[in-house]
UniProtKB/TrEMBL annotation:
SUPFAM superfamilies: Rhodanese/Cell cycle control phosphatase. This is Inner membrane protein YgaP. It comes from Bremerella volcania. The gene is ygaP. CDD domains: RHOD. The chain crosses the membrane at residues 121-141, 147-167. The keyword Repeat does not apply. Residues 16-108 form the Rhodanese domain. PANTHER family: RHODANESE-LIKE DOMAIN-CONTAINING PROTEIN 15, CHLOROPLASTIC. Keywords: Membrane, Transmembrane, Transmembrane helix. The keyword Transit peptide does not apply. PROSITE patterns: RHODANESE_3.
Amino acid sequence: MSVNKISPQELNKLCESGNCDLIDVRTPAEYEEVHATKAVNEPLDRLAPKEIMDARNGSADQPLYVICKSGNRAGKACEKFIAAGYENVVNVEGGTDAWASAGLPVVRGKKTISLERQVRITAGFLVLVGALLGMFVHPYFAGLSAFVGAGLMFAGITDTCGMAMLLAKMPWNQGPSCSK
């Protein structure tokens, strides 16, 4: 399944010349930190392609542009739309990082810890706790470190991170901007 792509500069020109629908599929906390001015938050973990397309008020024949931090989650969101039968979706190359780097208009809010950093912090903490408990309490606790290591390996191979999905649902990663 092939996903169409567009550069942030090209999309900005389209948005300036007319109406364009842009959704940001990052967590509400990430969205609150910085987002393209025209973007509406629709978190990937709650993405409902049919609801979004039905709410477009007759512009379903127009492309729907999808953005995230770097392009990876937006690609997954585009695949969800295509699987649901909506093929006119376009991934913004490089995501919000590329958008902001190009000097295009963004809204900046409260600084947050990125989901990727939260995963690294949590994984590191769990590995350390497992190792310490394994050394000082009971050797079976080393299994915690092994479990986290296996999870990280699985995430790297499949490009799906269970810990990130769990952390994305935590209260500190939610915000008032979520359109749902």
